[in-house]
Fold these 3 entries.
Entry 1:
Amino acid sequence: MRLAEFLSVHLGAEESCGNPPELGQPGEVPPLLTVTSQLLALLAWIRSPRGRQVLLQGTHPASNVQPPTPDGALSQEDSPYQPTPIQGEVPRGEAQGQQLPQLEEEQRAWQRLEQLILGQLEELRQQLEQQEEELGRLRLGVGATDSEKRVQHLTLENEALKQSLSLTRDLLLNWGPGPPTRAPQEEAEALLELQGRLQEAQDTTEALRVQLGVQEVQLQGLRGALQQLQQETEQNCRRELQQVHGQLAGLRTRMASLRQGCGDLRGLVSTFTQSCQGSLSEAQGQVSWALGALSAGGAGTQLPEGQQGPPTGCPGRLLELKGNIRVLCRLRPGTPCSLVSVEAGPGGTVTTCYRGRQRRFHLDWVFSPDASQEEVFGELEPAVLSCLQGYSVCIFTYGQTGTGKTYSMEGPPEDPGIAPRALQSLFREMGTGGQHRVTLSMVEIYNEAVRDLLAPGPPERLAVRQGPAGQGGIQVAGLTHWDVPNLETLHQMLSLGRSNRATAATSMNPRSSRSHALVTLTLCAASPPSTPGTAGTLHLVDLAGSERAWKAGATGTQRGDPNSAQRLREAQTINRSLLALGGVMAALRARRSHVPFRDSQLTRLLQPALGPGTTAVLLLQISTRPEDLGETVCSLKFAERVGQVELGPARRRKAPRSETPSSLSTDTPLTGTPCTPTRSPVSPPSPSPDSGSCSALGPSGDLPP
Ligand code: ADP
Ligand code: MG
């Protein structure tokens, strides 16, 4: 302390040997480093010759002070508080003689100590600088991942520095130049000042530690924010990705629907083109017919009855057929049920209340339960008669077993149904002019097997094939076609076919038809010499029951019924084929480019009857029994969907001059081997119907005038 004070007194005057830094200078340099730097500067000055000279001249070390050992330890009697001899008590000459070797020795000890202190101080300074750098880095928040440990480390370092400082201070005090030159009060003040600085350094360290803590907290906060930001970004990205996926799926769906729409449009265009061509050729036919009539009879001459042009039938009614499948509904007579109510007549409705839900179905025509066979046929007659003009008409009955499909289609002899009345009406319309040639074929589809009901022998199983490429339609190889000269023969043949039809009993209908029956009548009109004739077709289809297999009691597991397994199979195949019919209707309704006609034999055979430009009428038979309500609703739903199917405007078919009626046009469904069994089927002809070479029809021009 004395040395330090002494030096601080002299430092102000020394410029050349390097001044120690100003004590207590406020600034950014930490106090500890400042103190150390000051000590270093002091030592550097002490080491300089000038410093030594000043020291030697101004004062001298206390005689009782021993130089410290190289390791810095001091002996017990080196205490600075021990009394020292007062300067000037020894005579001067003697004292000088004794002091010289002692001074030299002290000089050497001084140098050793100086080296030691210098080394230690240099080391301390480097450590302090490192700490300062570290603190600076921490202030900047760089590398502060382990800040807590660093703070502890810094505290420890600080403690070590403090110890080193106090050691240095002790050394300086013990090894100071001679007895205290200041008053004890000054010493105490200097000590206090140093302690103050030390405290200041500690405070600074503490403040830095607090600051570090704050920064650590801020860093944690920033890390949290960063993590949150990352999560949010990730979530946003995911959400956007999902949105993009959703948009992509939407686009795909839209593209598919556009493709579908494109296919539908193509279908429409082709239907329209065909319709235009049909109308054009029809107009041409009419013009040439009129010209022929004019040239034959002269202007203003009344034509004979047989040459009155195309049979009129009900042309006005025919125009009502706008290309949609017409749906008529007939209720089976029975006890009225409050759950089914009807508004009969054209555009009628059927309202059902099933499972607490009321539904109203709109149909083209609704017949009340007491409607007669005549009434029903009256609605169908225009369509039937249009066959004479070359149109293709298909009438089919649909509904649950026992609802009266067969009754409506065939009817009992005393009250005939659609088929006999249609034939009668056609023959009546044709009259006796012989302008038309009528051929008949009849098949049934039983368990997906197509059987010829008018074969001369027992019913044969027939193969249904796709027609020649480009012509469409189908071919039924070996199918018997009968030429029907008159109504009586026709009735006889129908009876024969009916008796050949497979029937079996179920719990719902003792004489239920377990098969689909298709009657096809082809009417080829004789043509004037210059124009092609027409070939109309009438398909009469009596479908098997549409009820579910389980409800028909044909579950196949019933005890005591040896045929129950067969009943179950029948019910399953019927359901499958009706499902296929539903699929075809759905595709036609949606105007899909692909219509699944090949899904069942029924739809295969109906393909020509449901082609573009044909006329189709569905007669839906429903029951009013409460226990049948579920089936009734199902049937009505099916019928409503069928009512939306558009087959395009009806158009007439031309009969090629050189071909037989059975292959006159591609829409003739039951094309196959033409045959000529003109004899009555009651006395079956010799079995040669599939010879394919015995056509009784020559070119259409050969038809009687
Ligand atoms: P499906 O062919 O739908 O199975 P059917 O035509 O065989 O049903 O009819 C079942 C029973 O109901 C038959 O005995 C039939 O005579 C009778 N029937 C159906 N509809 C009527 C009706 N409108 N008038 C009189 N009897 C009917
Ligand atoms: Mg039936």
Entry 2:
Amino acid sequence: MPPLRSEASPRADTANRKKRAIVLDDDPSIGDLIRPFAEGAGFDVEMIGDPTLFTAAYSADVDLIMLDLNMPGLDGIEILRFLGQNRCEASIIIISAYDQEILAGARNLAKREHLNIVDVMTKPFDLSKLAGQLGQAGSSSARAPRSSAMRPPQDRPTVAELQQAIAENRLDIHCQPKIRLADRLPVGAEALVRWKHERQGFVPPDYLVRLAEDNGLVDDLTNLVIRKACDNFRLCRLAGNLVSVSINISDRSFGDLRFPDKVLALVEAGGLSPSDIMLELTETSLSADTKSVIDILTRLRMRGFQISIDDFGTGHSSLSRLNDLPFNELKIDRSFVQNLDRDARARTIVRNTIELAKSLNLTTVAEGAETPEQVRMLSEFGCDIAQGYFFAKPLPVDEFKSWMKSRVASENSAVGSTG
Ligand code: C2E
Ligand code: MG
Ligand code: MG
């Protein structure tokens, strides 16, 4: 389904505007059931029984969409994708008789599309819960703010601004420690790019990286991050604490077969050695042209760099592909780690991923560990390293350095003073 032609206009959220709801279900009895509750909660309700009519009825001022996942002709997943493409900001309630796994899949897709799913209701409904949800849905407080990566175009930093910020060296890095679970000592840090825009404050890295990638600026961005990482970690290494610095690289850099030598030259000029550097490549980016990926990763390894597969679990790498590519480390995506304490399936995935990685001789890193319970489980499953807010958020370099000193001093006095 193509996106609507015009950009969804920012919603006119005047207090008096009547809220609009669409109920999309091929079963008319469901609509009849929902309508009085929705009207009672102040919605103008439009019932649609034929999913192919939905795109014509949808517009950006819809506040609430109740969506049946299984309909003839067009399934609810296609509708979710359409809503994502159109940057829908409405509250969405999924109604479905499907089992938990399918519903979890739909929720995941919606999350990826930055949609605001407020509830998943399984048939038959709990009507009191429905009334409660409808009371809240569509209010501006219930609407999750879309990340600023999704801001209307006129608000977003432009390529020209990014180019200038890079040229003037105004981008920065924050550093997030990686903690070895066996002794809770920091054994590395990930450098994450940060851009503080004059008008808009911090620009979300995901948006900024995509902007750089789409406009031929990603090599300049990577260079800047490597230079800043070298400048700072040379000093950290002198303090004797750090094992490696992780740097994210983009698969767009893989079009250039000289990439390994360029990175090597930068790192050496920055006073570090390739063995100090862990290059992170997301699992999704591995689907790029296989030959050049193998070529570049192998040559990076030959030059002494370590390679990590980032956001593992979000892409589609086969086991053989994992075995073909010369990785040192596997980072389990934070979406699994964060569900460890509430979702048995996430636990199974994390435990098995750790087993798999170990059998391939890869170091395992869990990203996004936020709670003591998550950290406890990761230790129990034999995960080597964790990174996440539980230990520290990504910190400005100076704060990071103080954090390292106090952490090392308090966790293990045997390591000694840290300069
Ligand atoms: P990533 O490489 O997977 O980095 C980890 C992200 O998880 C970071 O987001 C970090 O702030 C966040 N994070 C870490 N611990 C937690 C936690 O406990 N809870 C939660 N909710 N989040 C946590 P950030 O800094 O927003 O970066 C997002 C992505 O942007 C990165 O994901 C990476 O793919 C990309 N990125 C960042 N810096 C660079 C860069 O210099 N170059 C490239 N190519 N990509 C970069
Ligand atoms: Mg990363
Ligand atoms: Mg990651």
Entry 3:
Amino acid sequence: MNIIFLGPPGVGKGTHAKLLGEELNIPQISTGDMLRAHIKGQTALGMAAKKHIDAGELVPDDVVIGMVKERLAQPDCENGFILDGFPRTIPQAEALKAITTIDAVIDLVAGNEVILGRLSGRRVCKDCGATYHISRLDGKTTCEACGGPLIHRVDDQPDTILNRLKVYEEQTAPLIAYYEQEGLLHAVSAEEGIEVDHQLIKEALGLTA
Ligand code: ADP
Ligand code: ZN
């Protein structure tokens, strides 16, 4: 199954894409993670992307499209994949359509207050990228999975968060109507907690017994 996770920053795309990917045994492809790996590795692509990311802006379409095209050509995508954070603009969606077919688009929906709370409290492992929320960390400052230090992403600071939400409304939200028109859209509430939301997502995909 080829699936897209759509939704504003902080709504839980990464968490749910990862969970579902593990269950279906297909890769979760996060363009945000891929870009951060490029920055960490100090590649040319990473250097070019960093200033956009830190400002809460989108990385130029051609850069991201090239990266995804290459990733989808890998053999592990043959049996399906979950795109998390791509497409984020109409041109990206058009480019994707030219490369592959999509079976379903899950649009994760949550109120603004929920989203702001999740983003401002998000902490990320510097080494493996695992995400946590301060409300559940009990003061811990290291990653449960690998022991790496937990950091507050530059783009998770209040001013940048507001810019990312604005960018989402202007550039990414139009994809909801786009995929609605394609007959692929499934809106799913992402406010009830990870377990419940996960079940709702599976129901929307017709994956429950
Ligand atoms: P979130 O979903 O919380 O916003 P991501 O890790 O998906 O975080 O993305 C972080 C940043 O990476 C974005 O704000 C943007 O600058 C860049 N980025 C990720 N995916 C794309 C994309 N498909 N197109 C353009 N920029 C992207
Ligand atoms: Zn870690």
